[in-house]
Design brief:
18 strands, seven-stranded mixed beta sheet, Rossmann fold, 2 domains, 367 residues
């Protein structure tokens, strides 16, 4: 009889269960990971509430799997077994049992033009660990392709390594917006991705960062991450305040929309200066309206930010290791067990959103 493990699996709309399932078999070229910590993402909540959207209801083109699938795509762990022929992980890093790692979760066919560029998120056959099959971080073990394993230093805590994925989303957005260190910047929304954007901006030398956020806890998180100015949009005209705190009075050169709601979109358009850039990072759950003439008249750039590349994922690993990304663990507001995942993870983020930024589900107590 095959050995089994505990796993949180998505069975359908508002149906996540703690199941006992077989430990996945090790394939040639793959490695077995004992999972450490995994973050609950906003897209996980979206999947739980209105899905299945990302999880496959028919066999996925890459994995061949369908519901139920193991959730959790922001995760870390330790290598416990090497498959046949495995000597290296991503970038030629030496692969050994016991090594700590962060897992690149984006699945691609590895043959299309976008996969060849390292941008699996644009692959027409894309998928995700934690949605599409092959397992995920909300389980005791996972087996993954060795090429998707990013080795981290022994000194990096596994809970911090689990933050590489969400921070990489912010890192990618900052590189697309390309603000200069002397620029003024606005971040709309200080949830996990907004905080990731702030941390990434500071790592790129940007200091004059304004943030619009309703939640007092998240506002405080934004200040801790390095924001100089934090506005509550209920009590402030965000566009006016941004002009007041920009040195030349013209407002931000770059705006990062991280909330995914109509008022945030409106604030982005009202705040950004002429010839500025709006980077769309947030996921909009409802249709929104925008007059394209606003972009045209003021020569604005609207840029869609789709996850990250493999290289950017590694850049975040390196930036945490060398201290450019400072104290990313500040964004963690709770650490819970697999058994607590539904009640204290999913439901807590749905019903007590203002109390949390990032909740991690832990499998391995060893830091």
């Amino acid at each position: 009889m095959a050995e089994t493990m505990k796993a949180l699996r998505f069975h359908g709309n508002q149906d996540v269960r703690l199941d006992n399932i077989p430990i996945p078999p090790l394939r040639p070229g793959w490695v077995k990971i004992k999972n450490g910590w995994a973050g609950v993402c906003g897209s996980d909540l979206h999947e739980y509430l209105v899905g299945p959207k990302n999880a496959p209801t028919k066999p996925h083109i890459l994995t061949g799997e369908t519901l139920p699938t193991v959730m959790g795509h922001e995760f870390s762990g330790r290598v416990v077994e090497l498959g046949e022929g495995v000597t290296e992980g991503y970038g030629g890093a030496k692969m050994e049992v016991g090594k700590k790692c962060a897992i690149f979760p984006v699945l691609g066919d590895r043959t299309c033009v976008w996969c060849q560029r390292g941008a699996q998120g644009v692959c027409p056959n894309w998928g995700f660990l934690g949605y599409s099959g092959y397992g995920g971080g909300f389980a005791e073990y996972i087996c993954v392709d060795a090429r998707d394993v990013h080795i981290v230093s022994d000194s990096m805590r596994l809970d911090v390594a689990a933050l590489v994925e969400p921070i990489a989303v912010g890192w990618h957005a900052v590189k697309l917006g390309d603000p200069k260190p002397e620029d003024s910047v606005l971040v709309l929304g200080a949830g996990p991705i907004g905080i990731a954007v702030i941390l990434s901006l500071r790592a790129h030398g940007v200091e004059n960062i304004a943030v619009s956020e309703l939640s007092p806890l998240r506002a405080e998180q934004a200040r801790g991450a390095g924001a100089l100015h934090v506005f509550n949009p209920k009590h402030n005209d965000v566009a006016e305040r941004c002009r007041e705190v920009s040195p030349d009075g013209w407002g931000p050169q770059c705006v990062f929309e991280c909330a995914g709601v109509q008022p945030s979109l409106d604030a982005a358009l009202a705040s950004v200066r002429g010839q500025g850039v709006i980077v769309n990072v947030g996921i909009f759950e409802k249709d929104v309206t925008m007059n394209p003439n606003v972009l045209n008249r003021r020569s604005l750039k609207w840029v869609g930010s789709n996850i990250y590349t493999r290289q950017e994922f590694q850049e975040v690993v390196d930036a945490i290791a060398d201290g450019r990304l400072k104290e990313p663990e500040r964004m963690i507001t709770a650490r819970i067990s697999l058994e607590e995942g539904v009640e204290k993870g999913f439901k807590a983020l749905i019903h007590e959103r203002e109390k949390h930024v990032k909740i991690l589900i832990g499998v391995d107590d060893d830091p």
